[in-house]
Structures are given as structure tokens and as C-alpha cells.
Fold this protein.
Amino acid sequence: MEPDLHLKKLAEFLGCPFSPEEEASGLVDGILKLCSFDTLSNLEVNKTGKLPSGEENKAFFRRGEIGDWKDYLTCEMIQEMDKITEEKLRASGLKF
């Protein structure tokens, strides 16, 4: 996966590459830690905060277990996603 490599590529793409001093000081690792799933999901605002629409921020974080999507999607949602996926990938030759 090499998240540090991808973060450096992203910084370069944005025109803000890390300097050798920043890399040596651990800035890349610090950013990766701040942006990690564990850090973001444990922020108080993401545990108890709400959007103006009333949706709770914690709705954006799942357990990340295989198959837990079934706990979040209705049958209709699953059918719609399957339909969209098939339409978008029809030309790829994949069989669904």
C-alpha cells in the first residue's frame, strides 16, 4: 500500500512537495497518523457531532468488516447499486 509514497505523490501533484527537512522531521508520518481511520473515527466530533441536516457524523464510519454493508443497505439500494455497476461495467466484458 505504501501510504507515505502516495502522500508524497499527492503533495507533489498539488505543488506542495515535502522538503527533505520535513520528511526527516517525521512530518509525513505525522500527517498519516492524523488522517488514519483510528484517529478520525475516535474524534469526539465524529462520535457525537451532527450535520446541519441532522445526520450523525458517525454514520460516515463503519466497522469495516466483510459483509457489514448488509447492515446499512436496503434491498432496494442493493438492487440499484447492482444495476448501476452492471451498466457502467457492461463494456468491460465482465459477467455479473
Summary: The chain has six helices and no strands.
